[in-house]
Amino acid sequence: MRLKKYIYSLRRFRVFHRYLGLTLATFLAISAVTGILLALKKDVDILQPVTQKGTSTDLSSWKQMSEIASIGQQALEKKYPDLKYNPIKRIDARPSKGIAKIIFADGNWEVQVDASSGKVLSIGKRYSDWIESLHDGSIISDLFKLISMNFLGIGLLILIISGFWLWLGPKRFRELRKKYKRK
Question: Residue 104: which of 72, 81, 134 has the closest Cα?
Fold first, then answer.
């Protein structure tokens, strides 16, 4: 009777493990590919513009952030007039490089400005931000991100547990079978 219980449990776990694994495989494949790309974002110029160097790392010589933001917006509008009303998402100040990166909300555009002189050093598209939102699921919505990341984490834990049982179960079954044959 105990042997039948083990066989039934193993078969049930095998089917459960297979379908859960297939469901998670899509999320894992997307997460793996985008994770590799994100790891390479500083090394592959097409994913993110190369960080330039400014003239001074002395913060006291820097222009005010409002002025840097204005310079960045004007530079983007001048080069791409159709992006005239693109709001600023954030400004990344890089004191060690002497620059500020103005990141825009629509289209993942970036303008790098020398924080001391106000000179525009580069204007480019940041594909890494789009890849990151795909990686964590926020490309759809923050709620989807929350649900999908928890589903992925819990699903992986369940796969580990069921995989462990699928590895251990046949060993235990063989031991029980030997034990019952001796009786």
Answer: 72
Does pTM surpass 0.85?
A: no
Comparing CA positions, the residue from 74, 57, 66, 63 lying closest to residue 111 is: 74
- CATH code of the domain made up of 49-125: 3.10.450
CB under 8 Å to 137, separation ≥6 — which residues? 144, 145, 148, 149
User: Model confidence over 5-44: pLDDT tens digits?
Assistant: 777 777 887 888 889 889 899 889 999 999 999 999 988 8
Beta strands in 64-116 (DSSP E): 88-94, 99-104, 109-114
Would you kindly state where each structural domain of the chain is located, as residue ranges? Answer: 1-46+128-183, 49-125
C-alpha span between 24 and 154 (Å, rounded): 10
d(CA 158, CA 166) in angstroms, rounded, equals 12
Which tokens belong to 91?
């400004």
